[in-house]
Write a structure and sequence with these properties.
- Helix content is about 70%, strand content about 0%.
- With about 100 residues, it is mainly α.
- The chain has one domain.
- The longest helix is centred in the middle third of the chain and has 18 residues.
Length: about 100
């Protein structure tokens, strides 16, 4: 699958999870102070990019089997966001590696 298409798929899956509950975006934005022009959506894009990069480093193919890993990764992200915690990059990397580990 083309890089841009698969990356967009991951980003969209994370964003779709965010938008399942209409009040979720508002609640997260009230709890978390984003820097400069960062928003919840740019954070979701960054998280998707990290997931895709870790997937490539682990030499995993872009297949349908990866959907469960993306869902697991998304759950970790939103568990923290709903508590008002924005995961730093290192924690996103660790969460992505952990979510992808069952596919190794």
């Amino acid at each position: 699958m083309n890089y841009h298409i698969f990356y967009a798929h991951i980003r969209n899956q994370i964003t779709t999870e965010l938008l399942k509950e209409p009040n979720r975006v508002y609640e997260i934005e009230q709890k978390i102070s984003f820097q400069n022009s960062e928003t919840i959506y740019t954070f979701c894009s960054e998280a998707a990019h990290i997931f895709y990069s870790i997937q490539n480093l682990l030499s995993l193919k872009s297949t349908g089997d990866i959907s469960n890993s993306v869902q697991s990764y998304t759950n970790v992200i939103f568990t923290h966001l709903s508590k008002g915690e924005k995961l730093p990059t290192l924690d996103l990397i660790l969460a992505a590696a952990e979510a992808l580990s069952p596919l190794l």
